[in-house]
Amino acid sequence: MTRALVVALAVARKDLTSEWRTRELVPALGQFVVLALVIANFGFQIDSRNASTIAPGVLWLALVFAGLVAFGRAFAAEREQASLEAMLLTPASPTAIFAGKALAAALLLIACEAVLLPALALFFGTPLNAALVVAVLVATIGMAALGCLFAAMVARVRAREVLLPLLTLPLWIPFVIAGGQAVQVAMGARGGYNQALGLLVDFDILFVVLTSLAARFVLDD
Amino acid sequence: MTRYYTGAAAAVALMLVAAGAIFFVAPTDGLQGPVQRIFYLHVSSAVAAYACFGVVLIGGVVYLRNESATADRLARAGALVGVVFTTVTLVMGMLWAKPIWGTFWTWDARLTSTLVLWIIYAGYLLVRRLAEPGRQAARFAAVVGIFGFIDVPIVHFSVTWWRTQHPGPVIINEALPPQMLLAFLLTMACTFFLAGVMIAIRYRIEMLMDEAPMAAGAPMVAQSEPAQ
């Protein structure tokens, strides 16, 4: 168990180091989410009255698509250099390697959320409070587990850019439903925040367990 | 070969019997009028679709355990037939919703989860087309099939938490008069037979394609990059 943890942390550290040295993904994602907000502004005719009803939807759209890009990239470098095969040849368990990749991708997405949430507060005038941040972070955990599983899968498939959203988005819907509710409440709508947050935690547990069971079949080939 | 023709002919005949029961045995609904007759095939094909996806789930789990080619082909056949029945359910549901609810679509729990169901298994079929045929495609598809099956009840449950409009299960509540129940059960049995025949035929096609991929007209695999 501790051995798996060491492997996972090492893989995550490798991914984060390589991102830190190239700095290609996070700045691009940050710019991507800001662009999404600009487009939403022109698409929706935002003013001070409707901003709080539209903002949660814009947040989830931007987040979901940024997530697809982030998780798609998680395995791109490995594929280009065939380094995933090399990692799998070591005695390390595929599940631990997968956990490391998912952890790194989740942290990169969180870095992108650190741009998205303040930008949303700035451009849409919505509150930026702890409830909002907690809901988005809790949703990120499960989304990262699922997103990485399917990114690992499509990395070896033709037409991966098309297939990743097709497979991942429907499975993310539970997170968007519960997370959407939580974010709406955090931004001032009425409803049960704790209920939605509890549901998100349940989904996290369920999908983290399921993806760690399935990772072996997707990676080990 | 003749077995499949007999099966298909029997399925068509049974569906015609079911149509007879729907239009001549079942009484017209007092409140909704003749539109309510959509109910029989709508619910039957929804249940048949769930059963097909159950086949996909079981096929996937069995495949991941022991790599049985039979389980994998059964899962493939189940997914395709299931998507067909889900399409029927969605289209008939929309036709029914327009006169009764006044709109083709509403983001109700059951509608949302059925749409997600359709999207997930359409994705399943795409994985099968795009992944390298053989072990890889079978494994990936098995994982998608298992996750899809788990995801749908979750979507349903989480939307129900906030809003719902679709009527609950009327059969279980014993709200159906006996003639309607008879027509419904008959339609359900016939639809299940049809689904079974379709899966059997599709299974046979998949088997032929596995044996001779070129002869059966499977798409050529374009290898645009070095093999992984």
What does this structure look like?
The complex is a heterodimer of chains A (221) and B (228). With 221 residues, chain A is mainly α. Chain A contains nine helices and no strands. Chain A has helices at 2-22, 25-44, 51-74, 76-81, 83-89, 94-124, 130-154, 160-186, 193-219. In chain A, helix 6 (94-124) crosses helix 7 (130-154). The mean pLDDT of chain A is 89. In chain B, helix 1 (2-25) runs antiparallel to helix 6 (178-211) and helix 2 crosses helix 5 (135-160). Chain B is built from six helices and no strands. Chain B is an all-alpha fold and 228 residues long. Helices cover 74% and strands 0% of the residues of chain B. At the A-B interface, helix 7, helix 8 and helix 9 of A face helix 4 and helix 5 of B.
SSE diagram, text form:
The complex is a heterodimer of chains A (221) and B (228).
Chain A: H1 2-22, H2 25-44, H3 51-74, H4 76-81, H5 83-89, H6 94-124, H7 130-154, H8 160-186, H9 193-219
Helix pairs in contact in A: 1-6, 2-3, 2-6, 3-6, 3-7, 3-8, 6-7, 6-9, 7-8, 7-9, 8-9
Chain B: H1 2-25, H2 38-66, H3 69-101, H4 109-130, H5 135-160, H6 178-211
Helix pairs in contact in B: 1-6, 2-3, 2-5, 2-6, 3-4, 3-6, 4-5
Features:
heterodimer, A: 221 residues, mainly alpha, 85% helix, 0% strand, B: 228 residues, disordered C terminus
Q: What's a quick, concise take on this entry?
A:
The complex is a heterodimer of chains A (about 220) and B (about 230). Chain A has helices spanning about 1-20, 25-45, 50-75, 75-80, 85-90, 95-125, 130-155, 160-185, 195-220.
Low-confidence stretches of chain A: none
Mean pLDDT of chain A: 89
Helix content of chain A: over 70%
Provide the β-strand percentage band of chain A: under 5%
Helix amount of chain B: over 70%
What structural class is derived from the secondary structure elements of chain B?
mainly alpha
Radius of gyration of chain A: 18 Å
Total DSSP E strands of chain B: 0
What pattern of helices and strands is seen along the backbone of chain B?
A: HHHHHH
User: How many H/I helices of chain A?
Assistant: 9
